[in-house]
Design goal:
- This protein has one domain.
- The protein has three helices and two strands.
- By secondary structure, the protein is of the alpha+beta class.
- The protein is globular.
Length: 83
């Protein structure tokens, strides 16, 4: 199991969504680098709001399973390309 830590979780008032999208993009970039090692068989995404599932890149090279907590996040999960 690998956990990706992202620095600097501060943001300006009114900028939460754009800040979160940038952090999610950075997380997926780091995840793709980690997956390139070939040592992982699958990815489990545990999300709250659909930001991470909705931004899941195509062709990660391993199966992806997403778990969404919120009803509003289900819309984003339904649009995910890996489902």
């Amino acid at each position: 199991m690998d956990i990706i830590e992202l620095p600097d979780w501060s943001w300006k008032i009114g900028g939460y969504s754009s800040h979160l999208r940038a952090k999610v993009s950075l997380a997926w970039t780091k995840a793709k680098e980690t997956l390139a090692s070939g040592s992982f068989k699958r990815v489990l995404v545990i999300d709250d709001g659909g930001f991470v599932i909705g931004a899941t890149p195509e062709n990660l090279g391993v199966p992806v399973c997403g778990i969404e907590q919120t009803t509003s996040g289900l819309a984003a999960a339904a649009k995910a390309r890996f489902l």
